[in-house]
Specification:
The protein is of the alpha+beta class. It has two domains: about 150 residues, Regulatory protein AraC (Jelly Rolls, Sandwich), CATH 2.60.120; about 100 residues, Orthogonal Bundle (Arc Repressor Mutant, subunit A). The protein is about 50% helix and about 15% strand. A five-stranded antiparallel beta sheet has the order 1-7-2-5-8, with helices on one face.
Length: about 280
């Protein structure tokens, strides 16, 4: 690698620590896949709930989670959870896996290996050394290789049942059209099932109805826009497919016990803090 190549490299890997203090700016550390980055979540302590392709599961400590950039997902991290979050631009030099996977690392020695690679990524990210960006990519590559060796062919062997396939199709349609104001019945019609069946499957796999999942996705985007844009509430309402700003405000208030304006004010932050959060790829 030449000196000029090192100088011209751009940052494609971002890393952040998971700790209770992060609740100050990201109450749920909730990410819905809209920023188009590959994501790695390493839970070293505590627990989390994850929804990947419309299927929710709980995970405990020493769990490695990977989600490619094109798969809808939600991470909800517990209040006493520690670990690391890594996001990677798709245009990096890395050949990232095409499949999502969740893998508990049970062997203590193997856990130490994962931590070693993540610590190396963090060390490079916090340095101002020339060549740190390609070095971060190299450590991510080593981390992925290490995890794939541990998983063997378990990832490829996972087969979907009919319910999981339906929820995957639902989550992907929802991710494309959550801002159109589509009703539950319209989603069900597009999937070729009844609303009753769709909600029954959703409750079985997520402990939430399909209607709740639609609302959660819309409100999550609303929270992102309130925190990270200067759009007025009525413009956010319109951009999310609501015919009435008043209805949007009532729904938001009923779910979060705050109006959109109060939510924005209570989480107001300066431009420098906002930039630090965005620099993490969140």
């Amino acid at each position: 690698m030449t000196h000029s190549h090192l100088m011209q490299s751009k940052q494609t890997v971002f890393v952040s620590a998971l700790a209770p203090s992060i609740r100050n700016f990201l109450p749920e550390l909730r990410m819905d896949g809209q920023n188009g980055m590959h994501k790695i979540l390493w839970i070293s302590k505590g627990n989390a709930r994850i929804m990947i392709d419309g299927v929710t599961k709980g995970v405990g400590p020493n769990t490695f989670i990977y989600v490619p950039c094109n798969i809808p997902h939600v991470f909800e991290v517990g209040s006493n959870t520690y670990g690391s979050f890594i996001s990677i631009y798709p245009n990096s030099n890395l050949n990232m896996p095409r499949h999502s996977f969740v893998f508990p690392v049970l062997n203590i020695m193997k856990q130490s290996e994962v931590t070693k690679y993540i610590d190396s990524i963090v060390s490079e990210a916090t340095s101002d050394t020339e060549g740190r960006f390609p070095a971060m990519e190299s450590y991510v590559n080593l981390l992925i290789v290490h995890i794939l060796r541990l998983t063997g062919d378990q990832i490829e062997k996972v087969k979907e049942n009919a319910s999981q396939k339906l929820m995957r199709r639902f989550s992907r349609i929802l991710e494309r059209q959550y801002n159109t104001g589509r009703s539950l019945s319209e989603y069900a019609e597009a999937l070729g099932v009844t609303t009753t069946h769709l909600s029954r499957v959703s409750r079985a796999l997520n402990h939430k109805s399909a209607g709740q999942i639609i609302q959660d996705r819309v409100l999550s985007e609303a929270m992102q826009l309130l925190l990270h844009s200067n759009l007025k509430v009525q413009d956010i309402s319109k951009s999310l497919g609501f015919s009435s700003p008043a209805y949007f405000t009532r729904l938001f208030n009923s779910k979060l016990n705050q109006t959109p304006k109060d939510y924005r004010k209570s989480r107001a932050r300066g431009p420098e803090e906002t930039q630090r959060i965005r620099a993490r790829g969140l």
